Amino acid sequence: MTKNRFRYLILLLFLQIGFAQNTLLWQGYFSYNDIKDISQSSTFVLAASENALFSNQLSTNQIKTTTTIDGLSGQTITSLYYSPTSNKTLVGYENGLLIVINQADGSMLNIVDIINKQLPANLKRINHFMEYQGIVYVSCDFGIVQFNLATLLFGDTYFIGNNGSEIRVTQTTVFNGFMYAATIDGIRRADITNKNLIDFNQWSQIATGSWSSVEAFTTELIAINSAGNIHKYNAGSNSFISYLQLPQAAVDMRNSGSYLVITTPTSVYVYNQQLVLVRQINSNQVVDATVSFSCATTIDDIIYVGTTDSGIYSTSISVSSALKNTKPSGPARNNIFAFQVATTSVWAVYGDYDLFYNPYRLDSYGISKYGENGWLNIPYEKVFGAKSMVRVAVNPAKENEIYVSSFFSGLLKIVDDEPKILYNQTNSGLESLILVPPNPSYIDIRINGTAFDKSGNLWITNSLIKNGLKTLTTSGQWQSFSLDKILMDSSRTNYNRLSIDNNGTKWIATDKDGLVGFNEKNNVFKKITIGTDTGNLPTTDVRVAALDNNNQLWIGTTKGLRVLSNVNSFLTEDQLTTKAIIILEDNLAQELMYEQFITDIVVDGANNKWIGTADSGVFLVSPNGQETKYHFTETNSPLPSNAINDIDINSTTGEVFIATSKGMVSFKGVATGANEDLNSVFVYPNPVRPEYEGTVKISGLIDKATVKITDIEGNLVYETTSEGGTIEWDTTAFGKHKVASGVYMVFISAQDGIETKVKKIMIIR
What are the UniProt keywords, alphabetically (predicted)? Predict the structure, then answer.
C-alpha cells in the first residue's frame, strides 16, 4: 500500500469516527415540514421529519433538533418511538436501519441487522414499534422482528404470511394475551406467551383484506382497514365487526393513554375511553397554510398533529382553540436543487429536471432564504406562478436584488425579499420553445444558467430556441444572441450552468454540444466537444465549467472531468483542447474523476476544487488535482445523501454549503478568499481547550503570506505559506506530536516582507 493510500484510509477512518459528532466543522440546514411520525413522554413531544428529529420541551417550550450532524442517517425515517421505561428513542428507516438514541446522554447506536437480512431491499422498511414487557416488536414490510431494549439486540423474526412467507405488517398490538398484527392480507394473531412464534402455524388469520392499523384501547380492540372502515373486535365470534366508516383512509391510529386518536389526511378524530368523539380537527382549520395530516398524539389535554408540509400543530382537546404551529426554522424542503450564497444570506430553490432536462414535476414549492434571522420561506402563491425554479443569481452590486431561473416560466426578479416581476415572452426578450407541430397556446420558457458580468449585466441561457443566449443590461434593455451557427440544432439544445471568465468570455454548458464559449467584443463563438481534434471531452453532455485562480477552466461532464489549461487561449487559438488530470493511485496512472457524473465544481479561496457528483458524494482536490484532500460521503460524514445537487462557498467565512437530494449541510473549512491586507487577521479557536479536537485556523490572510508559529522561547513548531485567506494548524510540531500547553506566537508576513502581523494562541492541554 502506498503512503498516499495509507493516508487516505486514515483520513476516512477519522471522518467516520469524528465528523458526525463534530459540530464545529459541520452544520445542518434541514427541513422539518414533512412529519413522518410523532412520539411523546409526559414532558416532551418528539417528531420525526424526513431525516431529522426535533423535540419540544413542554415546560420551557424549548426546541431541540437532531440531524445527520449529530449522527442520524440521511435515509428516510418511517417510524419513531420513545420508550419511557428505558428512556431510549427508536428511529426506524425506509431501508431497515434502526437507530437507538439514549436520551440520557444523546449517544446513538446504529443497528443494521434488518438491512443485512437476505431479503429484497424493498421489503425492509420499518413501519411501527410496539413495546411489551421490555421487548419492542418491530413491524416491517416482511414481517415482525423482536428487539430487546435491555440488550439492544434483535431476537426472533416472525414471517407470518401464508406458508411462512414475507408479508407487510403495518402495526401490532397486544390484547387479552394475544398479539394482533395488521397486514396487507388480513389480521393475524398469536398467543403472546407462545415461545414458538417463529412458526407461522402458530398464527391464525381472523380477518381478510388489507388493514392499515390495529390498536388495543381500554377494553376494546380497534382495527381500520385500507378503505377507512373502523372495526371492533368481537370475542364471541373471534372476528372484527364494522363500526364506523371514515370519509377517507386512515394514515395513523394510536392509543395515547386517555384517548384513541385516528388520523386521516384531512381530519383528526379524538375519542375518549367510552369511544365518544370529543374533538375533531379538520385541515381547513389551519388558516396559515394548506396542510395534509400524517399522524397525531396527545399529552394530557393537548393534541399534537403532524403534517406533511408544515410541521406540527397543537391545540386543546377540551376547549376549542386556535391551532399553534411548532417546528424548527428550516427550508421549505430538503431537496434543494440549487442555491447561491451571498455575503449574509443563502437563497435556495426546489425545482428540478431529470437527466434529459425534462421539468416533469412542474413543482410549486416557492423559494427560501437563510439569513441572520433564520429561514424565510416565500410561498408559491407569491412567485406569480413560476414553476420548476432551478437557479439563483444574486446581484453582487445589489445583494437585495435576486434573479431566479424557472425552467418553465421565465425569470423571476426579487427585491428586498419580495417577488416583483416574472419576465416571460410578453415583457422581455425571453422566448418560449415551439412545439412541433406548432401550438401557439403552449408557453414553456426554459431558463437555466445565469451570471453577472463585471459591468453588472445579467447573462441568461434560454433552452430549446435559436437565440439561446440573452442579456439583461443594467439599463433594463434585453439583447439576444443566436447560437444557431455554433450548435448542431439550437432548437433542441438544453443549457446548464453559465460562467464568465476574467476576459468576459461566457462559458455555456450544453447537453448535446459540449461547452460553448462566447465573447461579444469580437462576436466570437467557439466549441469544445468530444474527439481529440475537437476538444477532447469525454461526452457532449457538460454540466458545469468553473474558472480557477490560475485561469484554468475545470469542466464537469456526465462522464468525467476535463481541464482547459488557460482560458486566454480562447482569444488566440482556433480549436480549444482540454486534458484529463492523470493521478497515481497505487503506482498506477488513473484519470481523476473517471466516468463520474459531475454535477458541480466550485473553486475555493485556496484554489482547491470542490467537486459534486450525482451518486458519489463530494471530492475536495488540491489546486492541481493531484491530491484528494477529502472525499465526503453519507457513510463517512454528515452528508445526508451522495446525490449532490449544488455547492457554493461563502468566501468571507469559508463555509462550504452542499445541497443534496436529502438536505443541505455546510463544512467550515479553509475556503476563504485572500484579503488585501493583514488588518483582519483572526485566530480561532483561541484559547484551544482540552476538549477541542479540531485544528486552529488563522484567517484574514493575504495570498502567499508566510506564517510561522513558535513557542514562547522562539522555537519554530510550524511554518507554511497561505493559498487564499485561511490556513489551519493541527497544533503539532511539524506533524510529529501535539505541542504542550502554553502561549504560542504567530508571525505573519507578506511575500515582499513589507507588511507584517503578530498574533498569540493560548493552548490548554
Answer: Signal
Q: Coil, helix or strand for 135? A: strand
**What's the chain's average pLDDT?**
93
pLDDT at site 360: 78
The answer to whether residue 750 sits within a structural domain is yes
Cβ neighbours of residue 504 closer than 8 Å, sequence gap 6 or more? 453, 454, 519, 520, 521
Between the CA of residue 593 and those of 275, 425, 507, 515, what are the distances in Å? 63, 40, 21, 18
CA 576 to chain centroid, in Å, comes to: 37
The answer to whether 406 and 413 are in contact (CB under 8 A) is no
In a domain, 463, yes or no: no
Closest by CA position to 251, among listed 230, 270, 228? 228
Q: Dump pLDDT digits (tens) for 106-156.
A: 999 999 999 999 999 999 999 999 999 999 999 999 999 999 999 999 999
689 in any annotated domain: yes
Q: What are phi and psi of 580, to 5 degrees?
A: -80, 155
Residue given cell 495509507 in the structure block: 6
State the CATH number of the domain containing residue 690.
Answer: 2.60.40.3110
Per the structure block, which three cell numbers stand in for 490? 439550437
| Among 106-115, 177-186, 682-691, the least confident range | 682-691
Instruction: Give the count of domains, the chain.
Output: 1
DSSP 529: -
Contact between residue 633 and residue 639 where contact means Cβ atoms under 8 Å apart? yes
Residue 516 near residue 486, CB atoms below 8 Å: yes
What is residue 728's predicted lDDT score, i.e. its pLDDT?
A: 84
AA identity, residue 391: R
Residue-by-residue DSSP string for 658-690: EEETTEEEEEE-S-PPPBSSSTT-EEESSSB-T
pLDDT tens by residue, 667-677? 986 667 778 88
Residue 742 within a domain: yes
d(CA 733, CA 711): 10
Q: For Cα atoms 476, 481, 485, give the angle at the middle one, nearest 5 degrees.
A: 175
The predicted model scores a pTM of 0.88
Domain that holds residue 734: 682-763
